């Protein structure tokens, strides 16, 4: 784990894979007609790959195009007050019939939506990165409009008229 910008930690690859393995639900980013699209997916980690199960459709077709894909998962440890985010980048490929498909059928892949989900897709990574960071209380994000401008005494009050207001 490497630290940068105060309390934000860059996670080692092993920790990224461990977190990905526990999450099981993430967002798959693909390119559809030249534009990014994001789909929720459940997935399972197998070795150093991620496998998801889906039906034929936009998500599956786009994932299996030649364009790179990304899978992001995140979580929050309420007791520690810290969140994490892991991003897996790579290419997707169909899980071929045979032993690989039998192994994929044994993975804990339970699609979020009902229907026939007979396509298994594997994401082969080119990179895995992650961050862990503290979560601040909502009050830390006072807006200028709500709090006014801070004066030298630290009290919140308006110190000038806002030209964009009537």
Model description:
With 166 residues, this protein is an alpha+beta fold. The chain has one domain: Electron Transport, Fmn-binding Protein, Chain A (Pnp Oxidase, Chain A, Roll). The chain is 17% helix and 45% strand. The chain contains four helices and ten strands, in the order ββαβββαββαβαββ. The protein has helices spanning 13-23, 58-63, 99-105, 144-147, and strands spanning 2-4, 8-10, 25-32, 35-46, 49-54, 69-77, 82-94, 119-134, 149-150, 156-157. Strands 3-4-5-8-7-6 form a six-stranded antiparallel barrel. Strands 9-10 form a two-stranded antiparallel sheet. The protein is globular and about 50 Å long. Residues 155-166 have low confidence and may be disordered.
N→C terminal distance: 51 Å
What top-tier CATH class fits best? Mainly Beta
Name the strands of the widest sheet in spatial order.
3-4-5-8-7-6
Overall SS class: alpha+beta
Work out the helicity level.
10-25%
Looking at the structure, what is the overall shape?
globular
Query: What percent strand?
Result: 35-45%
Mean pLDDT: 82
Number of DSSP E strands: 10
**Residue ranges: pLDDT <50 for 5 or more in a row?**
155-166
Order of helices and strands: EEHEEEHEEHEHEE
Rounded radius of gyration (Å): 22 Å
CATH topology: Pnp Oxidase, Chain A
Instruction: Report the major sheet.
Output: 6 strands, antiparallel, barrel
How many H/I helices?
4
Number of domains: 1
CATH architecture grouping: Roll
Q: Considering the protein shown, what is the CATH homologous superfamily?
A: Electron Transport, Fmn-binding Protein, Chain A
Organism: Kocuria flava
InterPro entries: Pyridox_Oxase-rel (IPR024747), Split_barrel_FMN-bd (IPR012349)
Protein name: Pyridoxamine 5'-phosphate oxidase
Pfam family, one: Pyridox_ox_2
């Amino acid at each position: 784990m490497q630290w940068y910008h105060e309390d934000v930690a860059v996670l080692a690859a092993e920790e990224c894979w461990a977190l990905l393995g526990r999450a099981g639900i993430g967002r798959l980013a693909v390119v559809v007609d030249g534009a990014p699209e994001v789909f929720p997916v459940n997935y399972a980690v197998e070795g150093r790959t991620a496998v998801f199960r889906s039906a034929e459709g936009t998500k599956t077709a786009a994932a299996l195009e030649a364009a790179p894909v990304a899978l992001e998962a995140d979580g929050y440890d309420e007791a520690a007050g810290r969140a994490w985010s892991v991003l897996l980048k790579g290419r997707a490929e169909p899980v071929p019939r045979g032993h690989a498909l039998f192994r994929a059928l044994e993975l804990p892949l339970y699609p979020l939506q009902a229907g026939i989900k007979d396509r298994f897709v594997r994401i082969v990574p080119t990179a895995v990165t992650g961050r862990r960071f503290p979560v601040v209380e909502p009050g830390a994000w006072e807006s200028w409009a709500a709090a006014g401008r801070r004066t030298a005494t630290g009290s919140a009050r308006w110190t000038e008229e806002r030209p964009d207001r009537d």
